[in-house]
Predict the structure.
Amino acid sequence: MSEGLIELRGVSLAYRTASGPLPVLDDLSISVPEGGFTAFVGPSGCGKSTLTRLIAGLTRPDRGEVRLHGEPVRGPRPVVGMAFQNPVLLEWRTILRNVLLPLEITRTRLSKREQEARARRLLALVGLEGFEEKRPSELSGGMRQRASLCRALIHQPEILILDEPFGALDAFTREDLWKLMHELKAEEPFTGVLITHDLREAVFLADEVVVLSGRPAKVQRCVPSGAAGRRDIEHLYTAESVALLNLLRREIEIAQGRAPAGSRAA
Amino acid sequence: MTGSKIAAPAVALALTLGFWEWLVWANGWPDYKMASPSDLWPAFWKFRHLFLVQGWETLWRTVAGLGLAVVFGVLVGMAMGLSRMARDGLYPLLVGFNAIPKATVVPIVALMFVGWHDFNTVLIAFMISFFPIAVSVSIGLSTLEPEYRDILRALGASRFTVFRKIALPKTLPEFFGALKVSVTLAFIGTNLMEIVSPHGRGLGALFDSAKTNSDYPLMFAVLFALAALGILLYYVVVALERIFAGWAERPAS
Ligand SMILES: Nc1ncnc2c1ncn2[C@@H]1O[C@H](COP(=O)(O)OP(=O)(O)O)[C@@H](O)[C@H]1O
Ligand SMILES: [Mg+2]
């Protein structure tokens, strides 16, 4: 078996809480190939965000191992970029300076001028040309999320982790950003990890969809999305995609304990 | 726009003074009952030198006490905001301490440090004003959404870098909000000490001696001088806020 860029092997984790340990991840083994895009879906509170924190090196597993490029992850590394549902832009900085923030932390070979040129190019790519000097509060929710994506990509991370990034946006804005994600991936190659509760989003963006069971999360099922790389919104309306969405919906119901495992689709 | 910003308060002030003058005149109140605005100016002029000297005495002790309150309040607020244990331990203590009316502390402090007038006054100004600062900083830090921390931590940033780049600037608006309250409190503290335990310095002492001499217009004049100093300090804080946390102001629409 060839080794993926991201490898989780037998990973388990429990949070220590006041009322005893809370098992969140149970013996997870996952592989994401380089350049791949994997979506994780599962009941809320099952441990999806915890999974992203493990990959980012922000949390360490109790058992098992997380590897990037075959190297065990021992802590945070700047090869990761993150974006969340909350764009968490810094209100006292302009959009441009928000996007530049990661370069103040990571070591970069770029000169100040090159950094700024790169930030401007990314902003133009996501359609924020002309908003470089604006404050975050002057932008709409969708525009803020675009800026947040630029910030996540500015330091050319190998891995882009998206934790329910479009959850707070209206349906039309969300579709725009889905298409934007494909454009970004073509321009700025990365390996994608997407957490979402939107099955259409998972099928539209990812190469593979992993369904996690309820807490503590196990891998319940891995399903290829039937497409790789760029695709059109029409992809969601093909017979294969509709069948896939039905299958995923059934798996989620099983994960939530609302349907018996016997009712599983083929 | 700016014209009305100056004109509106000026008109309001003129109307208030006019009404006051009229009230005293209409009721025929004597000076010892209620001085009128027209009595104030002579009092100011007569004691102009004292006002300058004593005003300065009050001002520097207030600012010194406030400075201490900022340093101590920010440190305590940081401890409480960054460590859950420190918060659980210190919070009840702070609340209890803050609940003590400072007028009762003044004589105790005056007895404890007999003769250390500067120290006493600065101490009371400090004690009365650090609480809002400590609370606001601790709340600002402890309510920082974890995602803010994670975007930098994921890149390998240290806790200190996260604090400097995100937590600290994000807390500035709360800090200045508290400082506006504290500046007034510190001022009250200084005057409490000057009046309750007179050491002959500061506007409080001037007030006290006016009282002893039954110079009612002078007492009122001192009140006005105190108000003027309070306003001055308050707007210094507002100016600092504009400079350091102006981004938090929503553009007027
Ligand atoms: N730092 C923490 N300490 C204790 N419990 C936590 C912590 N973070 C998350 N949890 C709990 O662990 C579970 C999984 O959390 P999370 O990974 O955020 O789930 P998801 O992203 O799938 O909704 C939740 O029940 C949550 O309450
Ligand atoms: Mg989550």
